[in-house]
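Figure 2 data, in text form.
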Amino acid sequence: MSSTKGTHPNRVRELRENRLMTQAQLARKAKVALRTIHSVEKGMNCRMDTKRKILLALGMRFEDKDQVFPPVSRAAEIERPFNLS
């Protein structure tokens, strides 16, 4: 999956599917909106609290966040042009 403007690859979908969970099941367990799970799986950024809820719902520890949500490098942020329109 290539990184496009405004998106950050993560492993949420892979981990959810490995646990045989639907997006709706993960959303309910994480207590977030279904559209949030959909957006996160598409690579959209989300708040740290949302990441924590998703990690816990997947049975992971918050300390494992970098394995699921790889940190965005500063170089990648600099390369992405700003949308001024």
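Caption note: The longest helix spans residues 48-57.
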